[in-house]
TrEMBL record:
It comes from the Bacteria. Residues 4-173 form the Era-type G domain. It is a peripheral membrane protein. CDD domains: Era, KH-II_Era. It comes from Aliiruegeria lutimaris. One of its GO terms (molecular function) is GTPase activity. The keyword RNA-binding applies. Keywords: Cell membrane, Cytoplasm, GTP-binding, Membrane, Nucleotide-binding, Ribosome biogenesis, RNA-binding, rRNA-binding. Residues 12-19 are annotated as: G1. This is GTPase Era. InterPro entries: G_ERA_dom (IPR030388), GTP-bd (IPR006073), GTPase_Era-like (IPR005662), KH_dom-like_a/b (IPR015946), KH_dom_type_2 (IPR004044), KH_sf_prok-type (IPR009019), P-loop_NTPase (IPR027417), Small_GTP-bd (IPR005225). Residues 59-62 are annotated as: G3. Pfam families: KH_2 (PF07650), MMR_HSR1 (PF01926). The lineage of its organism: Bacteria, Pseudomonadati, Pseudomonadota, Alphaproteobacteria, Rhodobacterales.
Length: 302
């Protein structure tokens, strides 16, 4: 049998369901999923096997109008992921349709990609009636020459297998890039940091999740098979530190417990997780923080 392998970029507006789709495709949670927008920061690669094909999915940050250095670096990473891929899948929310943000993506899609085939995946189809869905499909295909259109629910898994089978048949022939049992092209230190950041994002409100980052400072393997993981939560203001710690440390304790439980399930072993909160007023302007997030600091230049 001929093997195939290729990179598939998932692009779209924030909260379109890219991370949910990636996790479903891979069969494990490798990307942060929350109800808040703009939570994926780096280009996270998840690896899935479909028959003789290996699909390397790139879950890109949502495409939006950037305001800050971090925003600009995230958007640059998203378009970079699309340009580097063999195939591109644009996710659009069925109930939101052809928004101004989606139109902005379509307007620059041709120049940002290098002739790759682009498939359209209309997501969250359970939220609209069939006639709305058909009208949106027609409108989207009139706006851009998509190679193929899929109507899916990434959360419920509806028609996702059809999309994966099509991608498997379309990626180039060639050897696999990763071992069969590898599901993510991310250091475990970064996956662990992302899991903690997700728990913080789910508990915190409004703007604060975008003003913090999590880094894995130390990872110590122990003789009993467990691991000690020390992480730092960087925030921009003293007031933010108090919010994250919570009354009598309740918030940080709950976050630590939730992150540790998910890490133990993901790694299949005992984890000792220790979190520290540090105030760094200018962390959004520090190149080292961007490297830890898998972003290019230079891409944040206006």
């Amino acid at each position: 049998m001929t093997t195939r392998c290729g990179f598939v970029a998932l692009i779209g507006e924030p909260n379109a369901g890219k991370s949910t789709l990636l996790n479903y495709m891979v069969g494990a949670k490798v990307s942060i999923v929350t109800h808040k927008v703009q939570t994926t920061r780096a280009r996270i690669r998840g690896v899935a096997i479909e028959g003789e094909s290996q699909l390397v999915f790139v879950d890109t940050p949502g495409l939006f109008q950037p305001r800050r250095r971090l925003d600009r670096a995230m958007v640059a990473a998203a378009w970079g992921g699309a340009a580097d891929a063999d195939l591109v899948v644009l996710l659009v929310e069925a109930h939101r349709g052809l928004t101004a943000g989606v139109q902005a993506i379509l307007d620059t899609l041709s120049e940002r990609t290098d002739g790759q085939r682009v498939a359209l995946a209309i997501n969250k189809i359970d939220r609209v009636k069939s006639e709305v869905l058909l009208a949106l499909t027609q409108r989207m295909n009139e706006a851009y020459p998509f190679t193929k259109t899929f109507m899916i629910s990434a959360e419920k898994g509806y028609a996702v297998d059809d999309l994966r089978a099509w991608l498997a048949a379309e990626v180039p022939e060639g050897p696999w890039h990763y071992p069969e049992d590898q599901i993510a092209d991310l250091p475990l230190r970064m996956i662990a940091a992302e899991m903690t950041r997700e728990k913080l994002t789910l508990r915190l409100h409004q703007e604060l999740p975008y003003q913090l980052t999590v880094e894995t400072e130390n990872w110590e393997e122990r003789k009993d098979g467990s691991a000690r993981i020390d992480q730092i939560v960087y925030v921009a203001r003293d007031g933010h530190k108090g919010i994250i710690l919570g009354k009598k440390g309740e918030t940080i304790k709950a976050v630590s417990q939730a992150a540790r439980a998910e890490l133990e399930e993901f790694l299949g072993r005992k984890i000792h997780l220790f979190l520290q909160v540090k105030v760094r007023p200018n962390w959004l302007e520090e190149a080292e923080r961007y490297s830890e997030m898998g972003l290019d600091f230079k891409d944040g230049n206006s």
